[in-house]
């Protein structure tokens, strides 16, 4: 009986080895790990998604690593994890996705990702598994036939206007400079992720959540738009309420961030943002009940973290 079980696991590993870009790096005692990239080539201004699956018997816990801000020649800009799903023969499958941005052109290699399998029983020995490195071709944005070393033609001389013309136009130049300065301040404020909110952050957030339209679970685009807008409201609320750079951090980084006045805010916010990441990066499609629960949890988070200790409410229309 045990021989037939081991034979089934090796058959599963062999099937994974020949399926597209799925590459098993190790298959031992019922443990199988495989990695996939969503595209074999891309340009320098695009992202590639690295997805790691681990299939293991029930009774084991799988821990995925935190890749940090850089993983080889790639910048880590996002990650999302899903709860283990039951498989066949009392097995479970874990899934973890990483969003990577290339930092160079050419044929780059995504380094192996090592995960840990730990028995739920105390005192039992664990194991580690690693994926194989994956090759990705990164192309430059400029066309290949462009000769960047070719000298450019020298432009002909340009006649400068006389000084009286410049003196006569100085009010317009001053107004233009002031306008550019205001535009620059607005752009910096937008880049910092702080929207112009005249009212209290909690009242703004609750009003935005109240206006968030429900999404039909059968409409994939509407479901994704719902979760993208929900995550945007939560992140902007964290910026306004606690000063966290939530719009410029990944969910994993946000989990480790905590304001001194409320240390639990970072982990709580990360728990609310992780389902949104699964929809945006992992192509997860929740049902209507799950979306309503996510909206209710976001509203409760804003109310309980308001300065008045939970007495905030959305403004009446």
Detailed description of the structure:
The protein has 317 residues and is an alpha+beta fold. The protein has three domains: 2-139, Sandwich (Immunoglobulin-like); 168-192; 201-304, no CATH class. The termini are far apart. The relative contact order is 0.11. The longest helix has 23 residues, at 220-242. It is globular and about 85 Å long. Helix 5 runs parallel beside helix 8 and helix 7 packs antiparallel against helix 8. Mean pLDDT is 77; it is low at 1-27. It has helices spanning 2-17, 163-168, 170-191, 201-210, 220-242, 251-256, 265-282, 288-304; strands spanning 23-28, 31-37, 41-43, 48-57, 60-63, 70-71, 74-86, 91-102, 106-110, 114-119, 127-130, 134-139.
Provide the descriptors you would attach to this structure in a database record.
317 residues, six-stranded antiparallel beta sheet, three-stranded mixed beta sheet, 3 domains, alpha+beta
Percentage of helical residues? 25-40%
The number of helical elements comes to: 8
For the record, what CATH class of the largest domain applies?
Mainly Beta
**Overall pLDDT level:** 77
Structural class: alpha+beta
CATH architecture of the largest domain: Sandwich
Q: Widest sheet: strand order?
A: 1-2-4-8-7-6
Euclidean distance between termini CA atoms? 68 Å
CATH topology of the largest domain: Immunoglobulin-like
> Which runs of at least 5 residues are low in confidence (pLDDT < 50)?
1-27
SS strand fraction: 15-25%
Estimated radius of gyration: 26 Å
Number of strands: 12
Order of helices and strands: HEEEEEEEEEEEEHHHHHHH
Domain tally: 3
Major sheet: 6 strands, antiparallel
Q: Which word captures the global form? A: globular
